[in-house]
Amino acid sequence: MSKLLTLMILIILIKYIANGVCYILKGLWFVIQHPQSFFSDYIFQPVWWTVKKISNTLTFVVRHPIRASRWLGNSLFFLLKQLNFLVVWILYTGPIKLWNYIFQPNFYLKFRAHVFIAIIVATPLFVAREYTHFLDEMENAGMDWIIKIQQRFSDIPPSKTRSNFVFIDVDDESRKDWPDQPFTPRNRITNMINNAVDAGAKLIIVDVALSRITPLARGQMDLAKPATCKEGLLHDDDRELCGFLGQYPSNKKDQCRTEEGKDTSKPVCPPIILPRDFTYTDGEVTGIRPSFLEPVVKKDSFYVQWGTVDFSESADGMQRRQLLWLPVGDGKTIEKSVQLLATVALCGDKGNLQEKYKNLNNAFQNLEKRESITLCQTPKLKLETEERYRESRITYSMGWKKGGGCKISKLPKYCLSDREGNYILHVFQARPFAEKIPLSDFFLEAKEFMQGSVVVIGGTWDYDGNGGDIHLTPLGKIPGGLVIINAIHSLQQPIKFWPRVEIWGVHLPWTEIIGLLFFLLILSFFFTVFPSHLEAVLFAGLVVIILLLISVKFFGEYGIWIDFVLPAMAVYYYHVVIEIGDSPPQHEHEIANSRQSICG
After folding, report:
1. Is 190's pLDDT higher than 50?
2. CA 476, CA 463: separation in Å to the nearest integer?
């Protein structure tokens, strides 16, 4: 857990730890002052008494076996009698005594007071959690912990609606024989896209910055200008990529068909999503950074589209949330994320891709008038349109080179499977795919994994340095392409929070409110029944631990998130309030005496 939670636990138990230290120090002082008495009375005599007792028992059994068997029978009878007494006390006597205790007049007064205090403590916490970032660090720590637990046990639940992914990795080995450039050569990107289409990919995502051109000569500016693709002012590599995308998908009619095509023996040509770059001022998006591909990526095209690749970075530098859409400049222009476009393209809804994207674009034109947008009907996926829902949490389930290798082939450099052994991720080195004509044996074997999968072209080059596309996540350092894969997977398998109800125009999670009230009643009961606050805190902490285990189970099996952070915070602040309220006023001489000795 986070350092903040650890600090809170230490604050709660500090006085009890101090008392324990005092008793230990007193014991050590006694040993120093009376070493002979200590060893004689507390070590030698108990050991000698135990050895003597065992010896006498063995002697008695050898000399009097019949009497020993009777003694054993009586002992077993006594034990059964005690167990019977314990069962009767738990099932009958204990509940009656508890019932009588509860119906005392003082109990109701104390219980109502504790419930009142609990509600006063929990209400600000709940409001702060809903409408501020007060508990963000605690919630991040809780979610990170569950994500790491799932990763450690390779506990990715199987799903019929989830897509399979292939990551084509431009690593240091792939770049070794390529021209020394700060970005991936454009002709290599063309070859990788072309080979992915030939392999039958369902969707292709390019996670490579495309706002820079390949310099024609030393000293040439490498920032692209609009419309340069048609003017012939580009490097051959850039012109090759520009020409391929400009003619797609008609240039691949032998390998795939358009959605209007009648030849069903061929797969539908996969849409290609390219990353959009932006200009920033003081952290705000002020405009679109042009690319040399602007002329060939048209707004009405759905086979080749632009998408944003922006993620929200937490205070600790980790990327935990994705930005599903990005308002540009005055906010009138809205750019949709790569993950959002991919999720819509992968929906199992009836109708062609053009209709899906047309409906999505129409929804975003009137975004401020909508409460939600339906991304998919099969499976049912809805997107809330409030500004705070623009950031969606990524539930990472695929780390980089963690969770075992491939057992089905030596071809992929890295694989991941769900708990039933179904492979959901294959990582291939980019070098063979970046050739215009890939090796036949290699391509035939790779085609088996790429067919019907989402292919992401990215890179892990300079993984241990600062120049590559590497990001810090709850699962460690992950390449940008794998972050996109996790983000798409999160949208396809969203976290199911408790339903919300609208009260006075405010959407509240009513089931979570009921659960929190039930927990507060239990907390108030503990503090009323137990005379010691430590016992009450320990029992309340036990309930939080049980809630944590339930949350892990529900999150892993059903994707349902049960928040255990808010109850834990309620226990902490409740304890603080009770301690302050029960502390008697101290006179000056009492305060002075307490400063002289920590042990009182």
Report:
1. yes
2. 12
* DSSP per-residue codes, 336-372: EBHHHHHHHHT---SS-HHHHHHHHHHHHHTGGG-SE
Radius of gyration of the chain (CA): 33
Q: How many separate domains does the chain show?
A: 1
pTM: 0.70
Q: What is the DSSP string of 24-80?
A: HHHHHHHHHH-HHHHIIIIIIHHHHHHHHHHHHHHHHHHH-HHHHHHHHHHHHHHHH
Whether 532 is covered by a domain: the verdict is no
Task: Determine the structural domain holding residue 300 and report its residue range.
Answer: 158-492
pLDDT of residue 590: 43
Assess if residue 9 is contained within a domain: no
Cα separation, 285 vs 502, whole angstroms: 33
Query: Could you tell me the two tokens for 165?
Result: 């992914």
Nearest to 177 by CA among 166, 167, 188: 188
Whole-number pLDDT of residue 270: 92
Residue 274 lies in a domain: yes
pLDDT at position 3: 53
Q: State how far the Cα of 288 lies from the Cα of 291, in Å rounded to an integer.
A: 9
Q: What is the 3-state secondary structure (H, E, C) of 253-306?
A: CCCCECCCCCCCCCCECCCEEEEECEEEECCEEEEECCCCCCCCCCCCCCCEEE
CA distances from 469 to 319, 446, 544 (A): 13, 25, 39
Alpha-carbon distance of 36 to 24, in angstroms, equals 19
Q: Supply angle C-alpha 578, 581, 584, rounded to 5.
A: 125
In a domain, 346, yes or no: yes
Q: Where are the beta strands (DSSP E) in 421-467?
A: 423-429, 454-459
Q: Which residues of 16-25 are buried (b: 16+ CB within 10 A; e: fewer)?
A: eeeeeeeeee
The one-letter amino acid at 363: A
Helix (H) or strand (E) holding 17: helix 3-33
What is the spatial distance between Cα 284 and Cα 400, in angstroms, rounded to a whole number?
31
Query: Could you read off the pLDDT of 279-328 as tens digits, one per residue?
Result: 887 777 878 888 888 888 877 678 899 999 988 888 888 888 888 888 88
Q: Does residue 552 surpass a pLDDT of 50?
A: yes
Please, are residues 277 and 289 in contact by the beta-carbon 8 Å criterion?
yes
